[in-house]
Write a structure and sequence with these properties.
Rossmann fold, alpha/beta
């Protein structure tokens, strides 16, 4: 059955490795027959959460910027794929800011049930993505019926566009999308 898939590329670097991998996942999901929307945080105006909790009452953030549109896309998708560079063994700040700003989803009638993750990092250790996975699982724990379904960890990517020279990694990202 076709699903509505939202891929959120959180890197703001041109030719970023996480975005290259996210684009491969997008190809795989489209080839599997899913409806796919790709959102990049490049050139988006996203401010920090103020912690006012007004979103819990009115159903959206009081800050009028691009985060509200992204939150609405998250709410109405069946599957979310986060793609992030790994900085200091954690998700990038842009990703965390979008997660914080999506606080209105907590008490909403959200559709998403599956969450996937793509990471890109210079370090290629087996556990590099684990702290990012922990952070994503912390977000998921706030939503009934939502589960973490898988990830691709791209390590050893030191320079922009390095992912293009790793066919095995590109295939893993494609397969992640294809197997949603």
């Amino acid at each position: 059955m076709a699903k509505k898939v939202l891929i959120i590329s959180t890197s703001i670097r041109n030719n970023s490795n996480s975005e290259i991998l996210a684009k491969e996942a997008e190809k795989g999901a489209k080839d599997a027959g899913h409806e796919v929307e790709f959102v990049s945080l490049k050139d988006k105006d996203i401010k920090f959460c103020k912690g006012c909790l007004a979103c819990q009452k009115i159903g959206h953030c009081v800050i009028n910027d691009d985060a509200n549109d992204i939150t609405e896309k998250i709410k109405n998708s069946d599957v979310i794929v986060w793609a992030t560079p790994v900085y200091y063994y954690e998700m990038c700040g842009q990703m965390k800011t979008v997660i914080d700003r999506a606080n209105s989803l907590f008490c909403s009638d959200y559709k998403f049930r599956e969450v996937y993750l793509i990471t890109a990092s210079a370090d290629d250790g087996d556990d590099v993505a684990q702290t990012v996975i922990n952070g994503v699982n912390g977000w998921i724990a706030c939503f009934d019926g939502v589960k973490f379904c898988g990830y691709v960890s791209g390590g050893g990517l030191n320079n922009p566009s390095d992912a293009e020279n790793h066919p095995q990694l590109l295939q893993q990202a494609y397969n992640l999308g294809k197997n949603i």
